[in-house]
Amino acid sequence: MFKKILALFLTLGLLTAPLAGCRQTASLSPDKELLQADFSQIQKEARGQTVAIYMWGGDESVNRYMDEWVAPRVEKELGIKLKRVPINDAREMINKLLTEKEAGKTKGSIDIMWINGENFKLAKDNDLLWGPFVDKLPNYNRYIDGEDYQIKYDFGEDTEGLEAPWGKAQFVFIYDSNKIASPPDTVEALKAWIKDNPGRFTYPAPPDFTGSAFIRQILAGVSSNYDRYLTASLDRESLETEITPLWDYLNQIKPYLWQKGITYPENIAKLNELYAQGEVYMTMSYNPNYADNMIKQGRFPATTRTFVLKNGSLANTHYLAIPFNAPHKAGAMAVIDYLLSFEAQLAKFDPANWGDGLAISLAKLSPEEKEKLKQIKPGKAALSPEELEKYKLPELSGAYVDIIEEGWFNHVAKN
Amino acid sequence: MWPKIKPYILILPALLTTITLFLGGIFGGIIRSLSAGKPGEISFYAYAQIFSSQDFWASFLFTLRYAALSVLIASFLGLAIVFGLFYVRMEINSRLSLFLQRLLQLPMLFPFLVAAYIIFILLSPHGWLARLLFKLNLAGENSFPLLVNDPFGWGIIIAYVFKTCPFIILMLYPVILKIPKAWLEAGKVLGISQAGFFRKAVFPLLIPPLKTASFIVFAYTFLAFEIPYILGITYPKAIAVYAYQLYTSGSLSDRPLALAIIITSLLLIAMISCLVHIITRRWGKTIKPGGKENGFQTV
Amino acid sequence: MVSRLFKLLIPVFLTGMVLLNIIPLLLLIFLSLGSSWMWPHLFPGPISLSSWKYVINPAAGSLPALKTSLQIALTATLINLILAMPAAKSLAHYHFKGRKACELILLLPALIPPWAVITGIHKTFIYLNLTDTMSGVILAHLLPTLPYMVRALTISFASIDYSLEEQAYLLGGNKSQTFFYITLPQLLPGIAAGSILSVLISLSEYLTTLIIGGGQVLTLTLVMFPFVNGGNPSIGAAYSLLFALMALITLFSLDTFINRYYSENKLY
């Protein structure tokens, strides 16, 4: 009997193996035609499609903006059904696409993905993206300054029209003004504060997006020549050695962190919960309006405020891209174009919805549009746009992000 | 001819399904774990990496510790509860016993991730228990011990005990149902107490299903993902979390590593289980259970 | 003396254990009904239904997810029944060469969390266009559930009273009549046990659904994950309760359905 089973199992193995070969034929022309087509033609084709947008689903206000503001309008105005697929981490999409590419699957399931930084670099390096498509979008051409460094380069990587900017974010610290009278304003002052208040500070462990950003934020503060990291020129070893001051800083604060640094919250949501419970006195966010959103939801104390470090505050742009095997590319283009419209950007900018920074350029707005924009005031916990602008720093090269995250594990977490 | 092949025909659909999915999966996993080198070549690179990696062994020992401890605790607790239920059935009311058994099955309604969540809200440093002790002036604001996301894995252990104990009870309780009251009466006549009766007559019957149940729980716990993901620590990670993060690291070259970790863990679990089986083989051999089959019986 | 101590201790111990099972449930209920749960309050602040409103809100997608969860669990269970019924009969009634090996193979998958095995045939699923589809997820869910069904039915088959079947034949019943009126009712407890375990395991599955469903097949477990893993605690609690409620109602209706069938077809 056992032999029979073995034989059966081998046959099965043989049966499935050749399938790998015969599925590789790619469908070709229609996608290329799409890049040449007139936009009204694209919109016509998009009508009736169901577009799946994959995005990190951990923020209630982002989800609500998509589900309650965008989806009904897209359906009404473009005849497209928008399906938001929540994921835990943008890396999941890259993985899925990599597996599909390896298996030769030409019709995937992701139409639009929300990415930036190291994930964009991975996608670009592995040819996971379709395009370039951005210059086909009327709203891109009308509102976006494609030559702006912060738009053209995503974590130092040339976007080459493979992803359309959707919004801008900046790294801020969040604190309770009831517990901290004047927050620290430099990385050194932050260290001193952490030492004076043992157990009241921590940061999410990478690969959490915000935790990883915090580490880069500290790097910007402790390194004398930060601009050097904007483009990737160092290999893994030299980078890890060169940024020793970063590991030293993080190891010096470690014994004074929450739970003495034995463990770290594994995502930003957990850190926010620790803050909400009053276990720690600070949290952080890559959305300057996040604190206001949380106050409104009644989850953060009303005395919550934000601050940035004078050493500089990291800023990035986040983008929308179309995978190589997106089943509804026309629909994806139409939706992305809609998301770049003034109305959609304005609603996204409004802290009542999401409070995300504008991807569209102020210089390209009409006087009426500028007037509308002025009506929207930042929340009381948020810093003024001028204050944020003053300390703005670009993100370092996407190629370094993974190296720094792994380095953190070996140099900091394991100690 | 027909009677001879009939059993094979009957079992074939289920067997084929299992072979395709299960053995196919393991086989595929082995193949991919050996594909770290050039395409089409077998390479043991991934295994060499794993065996020499300090991170892997740290994860392995961490996982082994919480899996072994949680199965031990859950087994003892399950046994104690079954004894209590036996006592209630024999001495008080068999319906009450059944009702209590059902209540104790409550955690089976929750998935693993909710079990982890429940333990988190109960036992985190500012969780419910910490608040209760604080209100009762038994603990200060920051003196509650770290029981979740802790280096030892207490949170993981408690969550697994909470979730798997009902399963062990489910496997043991049918044995209790099979024991006629007359036996106990007979024992009483002979002057044997309930505890003595349980130890001498019931306990041996419980050993085989208990061994099966704890084996299932141990092997399953070892590679289960949700609970250590939510209640684990930054370093070392549980094997399942470590392997899954490598599998989804965004780099195809990490996949053979992830699969090698899974395959290695499966082999090590099998070895450990064999060892434990050999050591405990003598137990429970004294009396064979009345029916030849135990466990999974409906109640 | 010792037995008197026992008499006192056993109820105390059992009550304690039952309480340990019930307290978390009560806590989840309280938590789901508050909006904020600030230290050091034992119970959340002002009572509010906002978390439940968020969970029930169509945009959050919980109800379609609930439907997907049930569809997957029930279909997988039905397939399990069809596959396991003949297999269990074979294992329980026939002594054939390789029986032990077959039984071992059938039960083995219960030992390993399915995601660890699924990663090995992930690529095959992609070739066969099974990823991102409900059928793929159902197929993957057979892996951890089938062993339990086989086991439960094997026990049932082993305990069947065959004199009844013979009597039915003697009285002129045909094969299918005998099966439906005599054999099936005797199997029902096993069917119930197997189905309940199969449904529970399928509903709870997280990682396998994520890997094979690729985020397109959204079950309740997937939708609730971010909230349980550090998000808004009261939404997490509401989702947990919604899940338990779904499981409870399904199991209860399964039980009632099977019991009713049982009493309707009781011939003896």
TrEMBL record, chain A:
N-terminal signal peptide: 1-20
Pfam family, one: SBP_bac_8
Cited InterPro entries: SBP, YnjB
Coiled coil: none
SUPFAM superfamilies given in the database record: Periplasmic binding protein-like II
Keywords of the record: Signal
Gene3D superfamilies: Periplasmic binding protein-like II (3.40.190.10)
Name of this chain's protein: Putative spermidine/putrescine transport system substrate-binding protein
UniProtKB/TrEMBL annotation, chain B:
Stretches that traverse the bilayer: 7-31, 66-88, 109-134, 154-176, 215-236, 256-279
GO cellular component: plasma membrane
SUPFAM superfamilies, alphabetized: MetI-like
CDD domains given in the database record: TM_PBP2
Top-level taxon in the UniProt lineage: Bacteria
Keywords: Membrane, Transmembrane, Transmembrane helix, Transport
Family stated for the protein in its record: Belongs to the binding-protein-dependent transport system permease family.
Descriptive protein name: Putative spermidine/putrescine transport system permease protein
Organism: Thermosyntropha lipolytica DSM 11003
TrEMBL record, chain C:
Membrane topology reported for the UniProt record: Multi-pass membrane protein
Transmembrane segments: 12-33, 72-92, 104-126, 138-158, 179-200, 206-225, 237-258
GO cellular component term of the entry, any: plasma membrane
ABC transmembrane type-1 domain mapped to chain residues: 66-254
Any coiled-coil regions, as ranges: none
Cross-referenced PROSITE patterns: ABC_TM1
Gene Ontology BP terms: transmembrane transport
Main localization category: membrane
InterPro entries linked: MetI-like, MetI-like_sf
Source species, domain of life: Bacteria
Gene3D superfamilies the record matches: MetI-like
Protein name per Swiss-Prot or TrEMBL: Putative spermidine/putrescine transport system permease protein
